[in-house]
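Researcher: Structure prediction, please.
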Amino acid sequence: MPKTNIPSCRLHKASGQAVVCLNSKMLYLGKYKSKASREKYDEIIGKYLANGKRLPPTRQNNEIIIQELAVRFLEWAGNYYGDKTPTFGHCRLAITLLVQHYGKHTVSDFGPLSLVFLQDKWVESGKARKSINRYTAIIRQAVKWGVSRELVPADV
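Model: Predicted structure follows.
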């Protein structure tokens, strides 16, 4: 049986955190044996194996994560549409699911398949087609807004 040599998650005694060592770099995952640390471990190992047993490139200083874009977009939408309007409520609902699933990813990592995943989640929750189309348009609007403010690279 072939050996896989996948680094294991272990306890960092000094901090009480889960840690994995990849390419001589220690990556801290959160509280040891917590659900969040196991999920983060699975995510990191998946990226590590998909990248040919090398760490994926870290985000550059000019890249923004989806969570940051969402906060800035909702601030803008609140001022533009008004905090108590239905349009702002739709923006908040669309962006909430986006942040829930992709908040820690860079905007350039979010692609068409990620959007399809969100649409499937809305279908599962019983949303109507009109609402799903509206939420999809809002997410596209948020990315375009980020490009117009030079927060997101134009090629995204």
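Model: The chain has five helices and three strands.
Researcher: Thanks, that helps.
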